[in-house]
């Protein structure tokens, strides 16, 4: 790794740590400080008893000064000692259980949407202005206008319940039956991807169009390179750079949150659905934990993406040292 | 000059683009010849059609909006009617081009040597190491110090002048017969400009490399050109050898161009002469001679388009598009207000 | 002897010819006297029929929702909360239970009462749709405006002042950005729903509409602030800013009189998109139970209720969702039209 790159990575890591700290403070503020009511009562869930509330108050240190409360919270969350008071489950364990399901959903969807978005975006750019382009554009607009959970519910109803092509919901472990695992995920993957395909194909289209107008593309043609080579090695390579960062951001966002909606509709019982259930029960400890971990994951993932971006685009490394 | 066929023979090249606002006639009736090893400078201001002409020769203006007519024969191949594949084989190989802004003209994500290698391997069956060696050789030939060390650098790590040298090296990689240089020095500092022009002149001499130099700077023309074509409003308005253009200019626009040169052998003028008015709109150009609205010597015949013809029996190669009588021209070339005082 | 110059008519600006903007060669006709860039945008927008239709559709949706009380009182003769569980309606001469014995509500009757059917509590869906739409739209629009207000200020300050201000503000944006949108909304929504919010003298109840509005406004701040900041950064180097500084204008004044107008085109493009996304976000949060709280209706809560009973009464899901899609789609199409009207160059390039 060149020194320019090394310095860049270090700067990003430091910045990441700062942000993580801020995130943890904010989660703390959101759950324990800002709201107007007694935190112990809130934590206790729907039907708190006096003794429960007292116990919680002591365990979480709500009588202590704020920074002690913060430390307690961090300790409980990160050592897996958080318990949900509504159902006595260990929050961290539940999250671990749900993680492979959420990952199956998120990673699968991310790969699908990326592949389709690049293909459709490139196609639209090359046919820009023509009917096929306009048509795809309309489809994309519809895609980004549909709420994921609504689409998912309708798919589950029509394709699952009525036509019986796909199972209406549920998750099958990959280790149990890979084919079934796949089949159960087809609809959730589709529902989740539609939105992102709509968005990304348009972004890629406009990136490609812009890149095609760049001087270096003109040079590439002047060098006598085949049109295919010009497209793949120069146009696409440069157009993909901004997309990769966006993709990274959204992937983190999907894992961190948007998957909640899809998991709920399809009963996948991943981390997202766990969070959704907790919301319905107004059970705070799981929500707190999911929020914290979700945000942490995103921050770390974003840093990785930033580093990848710098690896792809050598100009960024210089930028980081300068007046960034 | 022998009677052999010219390297590049352009006749009546015309290019128009359709836009939202109408058809833009970017180049009209452009005709010139370029012989092997010769330097032809095409001079004119922005919008005169010089860049379009050059780009059209390379086939870079082809598209659904462009209408191209006329002929351009290069080494026996007719370029205007040639298929995309034929043109692709010639581009970068027999005929190469360097552009104005070397920073935006080089792909920022690939190393410099790799970009040269890419060009070589697009036309020849060379293996990577050989191509890379050649790339480094070329970089040395154009005067880049420490070519071996800089070969793996990225474009943004070079200075402007060095980047332009890289572009020139890249253009030369397959030993083309013709180098088209579109305003190669405009984006550079004056001192660097001189170096690049020297480099081009050197390459022209040592490699018998014909150069089609597009520029708006008539001073640069004086340094390097064998022949000159002056363009205005999409047309060539004067065409001849450098001596003919500088010492016996026939067209009022050329007078204006020359008048804008400051000369050290004359007293400094109070004001630099300006040609009044603005360049013509190419969507709705003026009738007849495009220069007519700005020309202090225009008369009634000027509403008829002057043909690009030789009007001086003693100089059959010196063409111009002006209806004025040759005697009148001889007089005015010294006294016209376009030439400025002195 | 001298012929009048055609200079004014030509209007050519002497711009460098570039291969992909043949439009420039013709001289920009926009530079005729009297037509500023906004008027031009307006003209181009007016020529874009699709965008205009979309804009009209959105306005219609808003109007219909605002007219909710009119519909409720005069056409449907009910309120959004009123239960008609044990009532009957006459359809085609036959008396039918609003909600049958198995709990299945009637579907669309296309009559004044229960125009779009009833939900499992016997409530008139059309009425709830319109009232819920009011909530969803108000939250969406107000949230978007909130985002613009705060995001604009933060972006401008960060971009113009640079240095420490910029670092701090960027760090704040990064932190908000770090939270996945839904999770943050959910976190804030649940936490605040339980006890409301009090900042100093202002107290907001837990079930007030202001809470989702605020949450949405805050979540989208980085989406707007970053591009604004980028523009401000670029603009501050331009000559007219230097000129203003040379004239002795104070920094704050420069930000608001010189930089802001130039950023406004970004704002205009963002506004429809922000509102569309805000509406979607509200629906998502309400669907999960972290947005609009019962008994207030919103399209999101209606879809949630519908999904639970989708097998017996799919119309409960389809109706609010379709309305939502209509509103959001029309905004997106209109927003696209605005973007094209502002920058038609994008189209010229295409045709090359």
Walk me through what this model shows.
- The complex is a heterotrimer of chains A (324), B (342) and C (352).
- Chain A has helices at residues 3-33, 39-44, 50-60, 66-78, 91-126, 131-145, 148-162, 178-212, 215-222, 227-266, 271-280, 284-312, 314-321.
- Chain A is mostly helical.
- The two termini of chain A are 21 Å apart.
- The relative contact order of chain A is 0.14.
- Mean pLDDT of chain A is 81; it is low at 320-324.
- By secondary structure, chain B is α/β, with parallel strands linked by helices.
- Chain B has twelve helices and twelve strands.
- Chain B has helices at 50-57, 84-90, 102-105, 112-123, 128-141, 147-150, 160-172, 190-207, 218-224, 242-247, 252-259, 326-335, and strands spanning 8-19, 22-34, 39-43, 66-74, 77-78, 95-98, 178-182, 210-215, 227-232, 235-241, 309-310, 319-320.
- In chain B, a hairpin with an 8-residue loop joins strand 11 (309-310) and strand 12.
- Chain B is globular.
- In chain B, 51% of the residues are buried.
- With 352 residues, chain C is mainly alpha-helical.
- Chain C has helices spanning 7-10, 22-25, 37-47, 49-66, 68-76, 125-161, 163-178, 181-195, 210-219, 221-235, 239-246, 251-288, 299-308, 315-342, 345-350; strands at 88-91, 94-97, 197-199, 202-204.
- In chain C, the strands form two sheets. In chain C, strands 1-2 form a two-stranded antiparallel ribbon.
- In chain C, helix 5 runs antiparallel to helix 6.
- The longest helix of chain C has 38 residues, at 251-288.
- Mean pLDDT of chain C is 76; it is low at 1-34 and 346-352.
- Chains A and C meet through helix 1, helix 6, helix 7, helix 8 and helix 10 of A and helix 7, helix 8, helix 12, helix 13 and helix 14 of C.
């Amino acid at each position: 790794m060149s020194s320019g790159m090394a310095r860049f990575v270090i700067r990003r890591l430091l910045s990441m740590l700062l942000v993580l700290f801020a995130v943890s403070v904010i989660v703390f503020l959101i759950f324990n400080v800002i709201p107007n009511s007694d935190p112990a009562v809130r934590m206790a869930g729907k039907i708190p008893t006096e003794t429960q509330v007292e116990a919680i108050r002591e365990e979480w240190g709500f009588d202590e000064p704020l920074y002690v409360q913060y430390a307690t919270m961090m300790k409980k969350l990160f050592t897996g000692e958080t318990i949900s008071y509504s159902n006595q489950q260990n929050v961290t364990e539940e999250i671990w259980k749900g993680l492979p399901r959420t990952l199956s959903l998120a990673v699968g969807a991310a790969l699908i949407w990326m592949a389709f978005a690049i293909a459709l975006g490139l196609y639209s750019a090359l046919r820009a202005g023509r009917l096929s382009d306009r048509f795809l554009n309309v489809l994309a607009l519809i895609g980004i206008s549909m709420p994921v959970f609504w689409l998912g519910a309708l798919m589950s109803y029509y394709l699952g319940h009525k036509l019986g092509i796909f199972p209406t919901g549920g998750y099958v472990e990959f280790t149990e039956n890979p084919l079934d695992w796949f089949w159960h995920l087809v609809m959730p993957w589709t529902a989740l991807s539609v939105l992102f395909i709509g968005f990304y194909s348009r972004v890629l289209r406009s990136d490609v169009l812009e890149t095609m107008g760049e001087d270096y593309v003109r040079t590439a043609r002047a060098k006598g390179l085949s049109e295919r080579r010009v497209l793949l090695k120069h146009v696409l390579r440069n157009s993909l750079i901004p997309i990769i960062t966006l993709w990274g951001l959204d992937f983190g966002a999907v894992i961190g949150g948007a998957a909640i909606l899809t998991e709920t509709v399809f009963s996948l019982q991943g981390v997202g659905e766990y969070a959704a259930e907790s919301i319905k029960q107004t059970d705070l400890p799981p929500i707190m934990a999911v929020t914290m971990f979700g945000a942490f994951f995103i921050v770390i993932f974003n840093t990785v993406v930033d580093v990848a971006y710098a690896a792809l685009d050598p100009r960024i490394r210089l930028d980081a040292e300068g007046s960034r | 000059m022998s009677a052999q066929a010219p390297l590049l023979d352009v006749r009546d090249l015309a290019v128009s683009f359709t836009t939202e606002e109408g058809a833009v006639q970017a180049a009209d009736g452009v005709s010139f010849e370029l012989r092997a090893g010769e330097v032809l400078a095409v001079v004119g201001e922005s919008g005169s059609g010089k860049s379009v002409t050059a780009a059209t020769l390379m086939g870079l203006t082809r598209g659904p909006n462009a209408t191209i007519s006329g002929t351009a024969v290069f080494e026996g191949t007719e370029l205007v009617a040639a298929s995309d594949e034929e043109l692709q084989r010639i581009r970068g190989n027999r005929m190469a081009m360097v552009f104005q802004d070397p920073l935006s003209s080089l792909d920022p994500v690939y190393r410099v040597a790799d970009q040269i290698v890419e060009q070589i391997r697009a036309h020849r069956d060379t293996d990577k190491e050989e191509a890379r060696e050649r790339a480094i050789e070329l970089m040395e030939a154009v005067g880049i110090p420490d070519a071996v060390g800089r070969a793996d650098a990225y474009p943004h790590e070079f200075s402007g002048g060095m980047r332009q040298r890289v572009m020139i090296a890249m253009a030369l990689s397959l030993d083309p017969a013709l180098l088209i240089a579109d305003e190669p020095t405009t984006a550079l500092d004056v001192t660097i400009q001189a170096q690049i022009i020297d480099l081009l002149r050197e390459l022209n001499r040592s490699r018998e490399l014909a150069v089609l130099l597009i520029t708006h700077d008539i001073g640069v023309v004086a340094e390097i050109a064998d022949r000159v074509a002056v363009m205005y409003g999409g047309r060539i308005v004067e065409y001849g050898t450098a001596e003919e253009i500088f010492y016996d200019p026939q067209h009022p626009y050329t007078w204006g161009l020359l008048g804008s040169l400051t000369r050290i052998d004359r007293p400094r003028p109070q004001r630099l002469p300006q040609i009044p008015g603005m360049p013509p709109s190419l969507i709705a150009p003026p009738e007849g001679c495009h220069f007519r609205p700005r020309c202090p010597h225009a008369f009634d015949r000027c509403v008829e388009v002057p043909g690009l013809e030789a009007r001086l029996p003693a100089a059959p190669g010196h063409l111009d598009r002006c209806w004025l009588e040759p005697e009148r021209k001889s007089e005015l070339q010294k006294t016209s207000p376009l030439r400025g005082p002195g | 002897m001298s012929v009048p110059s055609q200079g004014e008519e030509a209007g050519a600006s002497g711009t460098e010819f570039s291969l992909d903007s043949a439009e420039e060669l013709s001289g920009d006709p926009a530079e005729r006297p009297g037509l500023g860039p906004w008027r031009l945008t307006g003209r181009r927008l007016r020529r874009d029929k699709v965008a205009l239709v979309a804009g009209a559709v959105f306005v219609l949706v808003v109007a219909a929702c605002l007219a909710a009380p009119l519909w409720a009182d005069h056409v449907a003769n009910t309120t959004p909360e009123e239960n008609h569980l044990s009532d009957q309606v006459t359809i085609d001469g036959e008396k039918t239970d609003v909600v049958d014995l198995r709990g299945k509500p009637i579907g669309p009757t296309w009559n004044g009462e229960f125009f779009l059917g009833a939900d499992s509590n016997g409530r008139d869906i059309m009425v709830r749709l319109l009232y819920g739409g009011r909530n969803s739209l108000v939250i969406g629009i107000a949230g978007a405006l909130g985002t613009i207000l705060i995001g604009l200020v933060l972006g401008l300050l960060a971009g113009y002042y640079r240095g420490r201000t910029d670092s701090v503000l960027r760090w704040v944006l990064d932190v908000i950005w770090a939270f996945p949108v839904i999770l943050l909304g959910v976190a804030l929504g649940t936490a605040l729903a339980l006890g409301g919010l009090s900042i100093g003298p202002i107290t907001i109840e837990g079930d007030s509409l202001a809470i989702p509005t605020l949450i949405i406004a805050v979540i989208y701040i980085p989406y707007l602030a970053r591009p604004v900041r980028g523009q401000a950064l670029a603009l501050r180097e331009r000559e007219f800013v230097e000129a203003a500084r040379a004239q002795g204008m104070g920094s704050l004044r420069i930000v608001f009189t010189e930089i802001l107008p130039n950023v406004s085109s970004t704002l205009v493009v963002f506004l429809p998109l922000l509102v569309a996304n805000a509406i979607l976000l509200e629906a998502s949060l309400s669907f999960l139970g972290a947005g609009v709280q019962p008994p207030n209706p919103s399209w999101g809560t209606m879809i949630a209720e519908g999904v639970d009973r989708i097998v017996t009464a799919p119309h409960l899901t389809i109706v609010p969702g379709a309305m939502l899609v209509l509103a959001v789609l029309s905004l997106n199409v209109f927003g696209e039209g605005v973007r094209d009207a502002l920058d038609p160059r994008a189209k010229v390039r295409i045709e090359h």
